[in-house]
Specification:
2 domains; Aspartate Aminotransferase, domain 1; Aspartate Aminotransferase, domain 2; 7-stranded mixed β-sheet; about 375 residues; 13 strands; globular; alpha/beta
Length: about 375
């Protein structure tokens, strides 16, 4: 049996008729940028995410960059980020000219450890950027309390966790402004690059709308030096179609994850994902850890099972950040996760037989 890590063909096949209708509608309209499809999606995603405003942008990285820019964060400022994350979180801080201040995660949840944040706050700190990694909600209530105490902004990186909760409140609705991604492999994936920003602050939403569009509110009149980062009509239309089914697909992922958690309990040295108290996950990824990661991955590959490592090199060890002069040993928890983590297949439409095959194959490896 072959089990792909992610079956985008199967996922998108379920939307084929609707996607074709949306494509025809956009083509027939003759309007491809900043039109009615974008406005409709922005309205609907804001409603879904229980925020007042949503602004569509080109991709998830741009969403984070623009979020920091409209907060006035730049040269000389510091932004607290997780040491364990995809490099985009760090890149956004770097692109606005600020300095990344990494904080280690909790080993159990992989998310930033709130109890370590205050020790990293200085007079230059302007914001905290928690990342809801792998689809698991951070302890956002605690992070917001810390930010309020020290008069800091919070920018959620919610690229992987649409639909997850902390204390009954959706991720992407906690921060002053928040970025998300609709990269094709995300829980709600576009058919190309796409992203969005959510916020409850009208002035921030207005600034983002100007900044994403060359710094212009009125065509050919530019108020500030802006960017070209606009969510196009076609991707907005596709995403609006998929939004209606997002919670159903999240629920399928949760069922698969619960199946894994039950079948893989107490198997060898496997460490299964854990959630923080009162936090949920949309299980964008199902990440296990084992000291035998490389050997297990090779064994699963030979048996036709796709896996991915998220992520093999933590940001502080990347050549891109050699200028910060971090030592390889500076963030041991991030390094441990990178050396031992492995993401198992999980996607809507995954068959029970495929889940059982993955679990039985892992058990046979340890046997």
């Amino acid at each position: 049996m072959n089990v792909p890590f992610l079956d985008l063909k199967k996922i998108n096949k379920a939307y084929e008729f609707g996607l074709q209708e949306k494509l025809k509608s956009v083509i027939d309209s003759g309007w491809f940028i900043m039109g009615s499809q974008l406005l409709e999606f922005e309205k609907n995603y804001a409603t879904f995410n229980t925020t007042n405003y949503c602004v569509g942008v080109g991709n998830g990285l741009d969403a984070l960059i623009l979020s920091l820019k409209v907060l006035g964060i730049g040269e000389g400022d510091e932004v607290i980020v997780p040491s364990n994350t995809y490099i985009a979180s760090w890149l956004a801080v770097s692109y606005v000219g600020a300095k990344v201040i990494p904080v280690e995660p909790k080993l159990e949840t992989y998310n930033i450890n709130p109890s370590l944040i205050e020790d990293k706050i200085t007079s230059k700190t302007k914001a905290i950027m928690p990342v809801n990694l792998y689809g698991q909600a951070c302890e956002l209530d605690k992070i917001m309390d810390i930010a309020g105490k020290h008069n800091l902004f919070v920018v959620e990186d919610n690229a992987q966790a649409q639909g997850a909760y902390c204390k009954g409140k959706l991720t992407g609705s906690f921060g002053h402004i928040n970025g998300t991604s609709f990269y094709p492999g995300k829980n709600m994936g576009a058919l190309g690059d796409a992203g969005a920003i959510t916020t409850n602050h009208e002035e921030l939403a207005k600034k983002v709308k100007t900044l994403r569009n060359y710094g212009s509110q009125e065509k050919y009149y530019n108020e500030v030096k802006g960017f070209n980062s606009r969510l196009d009509e076609l991707q907005a239309a596709f995403l609006d179609l998929k939004l209606k089914n997002l919670q159903n697909e999240n629920n399928q992922r949760i069922e698969i994850a619960n199946n894994y958690l039950q079948q893989l309990k107490n198997i060898g040295d496997l460490v299964l994902p854990a959630l923080a108290e009162n936090c949920s996950s949309n299980y964008h990824l199902f990440v296990i850890r084992t000291e035998k990661r490389n050997e297990l991955q090779k064994f699963l590959h030979e048996k036709g099972i796709g896996t991915v490592i998220h992520y093999p090199v933590p940001p502080h060890k990347q050549k891109a950040y050699a200028d910060l002069n971090f030592n390889a040993s500076d963030f041991p928890i991030a390094s441990l996760i990178a050396d031992t983590c492995l993401s198992l297949p999980i996607f809507p439409g995954m068959e029970n037989e495929q889940i059982d095959y993955v679990c039985n194959t892992i058990k046979s490896y340890y046997a």
